[in-house]
Amino acid sequence: RKEYVDLYLTYVFDESIRKPFEDFMRGFLRGCPARRWKMFLPVELQIVLQGHSIIDWHLLEKNVTYSQYKKLDRTIRNFWTVFHKLPEEKKKMFLAFLSGSDRIPGYGLENFTFCIQDPHVENPDEADLFANTCFRTLFLPR
C-alpha cells in the first residue's frame, strides 16, 4: 500500500503536471528572463507579482487626497467611520472596486494613494458611488 500511495502521489504532484508546468515556465521565462528574477527571495517575488495582502487600513486613510472635499467634511468623516467598521473581506472588496485589485501593489502602501472626489451631481441622495480604477479615484456624492 505504501508503494501504491507513493507512486500515486508522485504521479499526481509531479508527472501529471510536468508538461503544463514546462509550457508555463517556458512562456514565463520568455517574457521575464530568469536572471532578473534570481535577485528576489521567493517571498519577495510573490509580493512583486501579486502585491501585499496584509493592509494597514489607517495608513491607507492617511494617504488619501481629496478633491472638492476637506478631510474634516461630514461626508468624509462618515465614510471613514463606516469603512473602519467593515469586516476585512468587505474592505478588500472596496479596494478591488477602487483599484481593480484587492491587494496593494508591490511598491508598498506608503506609496499607494487614491483620491476621493465630489462628483457634483444634482441630487446626491439618488446618486451612486462610483470609481475610476485607472486613476484610483472614488466619486463620493455628498
TrEMBL record:
What top-level branch of life does the organism fall under?
A: Eukaryota
Q: Which GO terms describe its molecular function?
A: ligase activity; ubiquitin protein ligase activity
The record, for InterPro entries, names: E3A/B/C-like (IPR044611), HECT_dom (IPR000569), Hect_E3_ubiquitin_ligase (IPR035983)
Report any one BP term from Gene Ontology. Answer: protein polyubiquitination
Name the Pfam families for this protein.
Answer: HECT (PF00632)
Alphabetic keyword roster: Ligase, Transferase, Ubl conjugation pathway
EC code(s) of this entry:
2.3.2.26
Occurrences of domain HECT (ranges): 1-142
**Catalytic residues as annotated in Swiss-Prot or TrEMBL:** C134 (glycyl thioester intermediate)
Q: What's the top EC group for this one?
A: transferase
Q: Which reaction does it catalyse?
A: S-ubiquitinyl-[E2 ubiquitin-conjugating enzyme]-L-cysteine + [acceptor protein]-L-lysine = [E2 ubiquitin-conjugating enzyme]-L-cysteine + N(6)-ubiquitinyl-[acceptor protein]-L-lysine
The protein's name: HECT-type E3 ubiquitin transferase
Which species expresses this protein natively?
A: Chordeiles acutipennis
Q: Lineage of this protein's species?
A: Eukaryota, Metazoa, Chordata, Craniata, Vertebrata
**Gene designation per UniProt:** Herc4_1
